[in-house]
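Per reviewer request, we include the raw input and output of the structure prediction for the construct analysed in the revised manuscript.
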Amino acid sequence: MGTAERRRAPEAAAGTGPGAPDHGIPASGRAVEVPEREPGSVQRELWTDEPARRRRLPDPVRTAAVRAVLVVAVTLVLAMVAFLCTMAGSWLAFPMVIGSVAGTVVATWGVLDVWVTRQVWNQRHGVVSVPSSTARAVRRERRRARRQARTAERAQERIHGRGRAGQLSHS
């Protein structure tokens, strides 16, 4: 189902609106019992939702990757035109070769930009916390150390505060 079908009303998208033929296909896409055919037969689902194999790239990384792919594609087209112009003996061959060299430099920068953007994003937002992740253990240790430091600080304040309040000599 495309974007246009998803944006329509559920009745129109499912084909169950007024005047629409009913083919026994539910709006939810689940299997239903079809009374018109053999009794007890169940219609198979039209599609099966499967979880994504990999997580989606973060927005800045995806933007850099799209830019890099576009630059690489343009560079490949320039290189192909330069090759064909060279084979044909056209005067356009030299400018195309210069454009291909410049495009190669820009494409290399684009690919490096994807790599650097991904590294920066991972550094700023941390690694995925899974039970075996070292980042989780490090954060846990830091929290524990901060907690102990606050507890020790409160205990010191209590000891110093008690000595001054009940002190009768050594004014």
